[in-house]
Amino acid sequence: MTGQLTTNDILRENDFTRGLTDPQLAKLASLCTEVAFQDDDVILMNGQRSEYFYLILTGSACIELRAARFTVCLQALGAGQAGGWSALLYHQDTLFQVRAREPMTVLCLHGSDLAQLRRTDPELGAEILMRILGLVAGRVKATEERFAEMCGVSMNPNRTNIRC
Question: What is the DSSP string of 40-85?
Fold first, then answer.
């Protein structure tokens, strides 16, 4: 584990899990595995079956829209943030590619473990799903902003927008 901190301590300070009760944190901590990635490692590949949800401890990752002829970074995620929300959906392929921007460590939670937790602790399950919706909304917003930027449209409401 990172330094002398316990998994519970780390979860208590993580942006995604901050504010959960100690018993809720303990349940999540029991499901966590610390994993390391190196610079440029592909963590999730778009179109791949999504299995894991990640809480970033150190380093950063880039959420990428990847197609046959191009790859575009939509959003950067850093320490305290989370990714891999597709793992919480049943049989959902990953929609975006996630690549390490530098060496990084994460707490990894298997999607099936989180699904079981939702069934056995509906209150915690509902809280996790609400927080996941926040991640999804953030990803949609980042995608919209990047698309607008590529079209020459300013997301600043005080500026005139240019149409694609």
Answer: T-EEE-TTSBP-EEEEEEESEEEEEEE-SS-EEEEEEEETT-EE-G
Q: Which residues pair with 108 in a beta bridge?
A: 33, 54
Q: Which of 135, 156, 139, 145 is nearest to 54 (CA)?
A: 135
The burial class, CB within 10 Å (0-12 / 13-18 / 19+), for 153 is middle
Could you tell me the two tokens for 137? 């909304």
* Residues 14-23: tens digit of each pLDDT: 999 999 999 9
pLDDT-based confidence at 106, cuts 50/70/90? very high
pTM of this structure? 0.84
Cα 4 from Cα 115, distance rounded (Å) = 30
CB 46 within 8 A of CB 86: no
Distance set, CA 133 to CA 46, 82, 127 (Å)? 19, 12, 10
Polymer length of the chain: 164
Task: Report how far apart, in Å, the C-alpha atoms of 65 and of each of 31, 55, 147 are.
Answer: 29, 20, 11
Pairing label, strands 104-110, 52-58: antiparallel
Using CA atoms, how far apart are residues 103 and 110, in angstroms rounded to an integer?
21
Quick one: pLDDT at residue 127? 95
